[in-house]
Amino acid sequence: MKVNQLIDRFTHNWPQKLVCFVFALFLYLFYHMSQVDRKTIVIPLKVYDQGEVMLVSNIPSSVKLTVRADKNNISSIKNSDFTASINLNYLTESGNFRVPVVLVVSDSISALDPLEVKMSPEVIDVTVDKRITKPVSVEVQSFGETAHGYMLSNISVNPPFVNVTGPASIVNTLDSFKTSTVDLSDATKTFSKRVSIQNTNKVISLENVSDYSVTAEFEPVISEKNIEAVKLIPMYLNDRFEIVSEIPLFFARISGPLLTLESFKPEYINLNLSFITEAGDIEVPVNFNVPRGIEVVEKSADIIIISVVERPEAVEIEDRSEQSSSMLPMDFSFS
Which residue in 21, 90, 123, 229 is a FRET match for 167, CA 20 to 30 A apart? Predict the structure, then answer.
């Protein structure tokens, strides 16, 4: 009987009672929501890939959090109270995977009530590849012109290789890495310089990128030069003689350091005729002296022939001398 009465009371005017219940629930939710505020936070996304594979695809650098909490507490919530990350260390094969984003909330924030946190995105598509380490050659990057008359004979880097770690699909395509630039402007002597290795690919890492040295070696530029129309000047010929033949011009081709060749401009060569003691066709050596380091590749003559005759006045003097020496002394007597 009592149960029936209870049911009758519950069902009596039930439409009005339902309306009152819904209205009361609405008031409760409205009050509750009026005490809760919302805040949007963007935090960086960390990637843990120190295992057998590495991330090779582009992924978001951050995630967005929508935080709902009591108005009195919402201002105390900071970005540093959250960390978001994906963990790839458990993967062992290359391929495409969907990886959940792990959100960690600080203990001080976790204790808040009410607290609601929504994260976007919650899952990220990633492409990973096997991690390998491989030595790759290093090339010197230089600029500038050496000093005039000098050339770069050799340039080297030590060590000549750098160990590269990264995804196999990328590392296996690498041929070389370049050093920071080395200035060769106006250089004439060998020098060494500390350099670093340039790496613009964030997916790969290089070992000891600053522990490199470049040595540049220089040497004079070797060239050739034609020596043309040099006069041969007779010197020290005895006054008894005179030259009756034409003395030719001298020609030569020389080789050596460019700067020395540029400054070597002979206009004449002296012929030493002091050894001539009689007239005739005389062989005279042509002494073509060149600076140290210069090589005579070709020359027009080592010896020239000149015709020498005695001067007429010298012959006449000689004849008179012979005549006077042949005359006998005469004695005169008077009685």
Answer: 123
